[in-house]
Amino acid sequence: MTLLLSGSSGSNRLYADGQLERTVVAEFIQDLVSGDPSLLAVLQRMLEGLVLYHAAFLPDLSQASRRFKNLRVVFDSNLVRPVLGYEGNAMRALMRETLGILKGSEVQCLVFDKTVREIHRILSMYEAKLGTSEGRSSLRPVPMAPALSYEAIRHQVT
Questions:
Q1: Which of 44, 58, 82, 107 would give a disulfide with 102, using CB separation of 3.0 to 4.6 Å?
Q2: What is the pTM of this model?
């Protein structure tokens, strides 16, 4: 809320177009949730999601042509697996489009060696589990499990 209020009450400031309305709404929400920690936590998660949405999908098309200077995005295994297609075709397409947008905006996309080793360990675990009926029955139903086969994993690990 402090971000929306710019750190102060809106009573003695001049406002740009639409800023007054945003400030009034922010102050109302702040007063509403200040006494309820659970409601504040929900609102915080919603605001984080909104920020992530705007950063990832650039809903303001006038901003889409902007280029980033020296921006690096490091992908962890939760983002690399979908890019590789381990979580289904829809997630693969979404992540590949996201990568295209980032690269088109001159963002450097990175993966740490540690993340690559983590993915290899995950694939090795699946290779071992898929090799036996007991192992297959022990796998939890996660998006990655159906996308993998024993042969595909052996190919990736070796």
A1: 107
A2: 0.48
If one counts every other C-beta atom within 10 angstroms of the C-beta of residue 102, the result is: 17
Q: Tokens for 59?
A: 């809903």
Instruction: Please write the tens of the pLDDT for every residue from 2-61.
Output: 544 444 444 445 556 677 888 888 888 888 888 888 888 888 888 877 777 776 666 665
Neighbouring-strand partners of residue 110: 74
Question: What are the residue boundaries of the structural domains of the chain, listed by start?
Answer: 2-57, 72-157
Give pairs for 63-68: CB < 8 Å, separation 24+: 66/105, 67/105, 67/106, 68/105, 68/106, 68/107
Measuring CA to CA, how many Å separate 82 from each of 55, 61, 76, 125?
19, 26, 11, 18
The two three-digit tokens of residue 155, written as one number: 């190919």
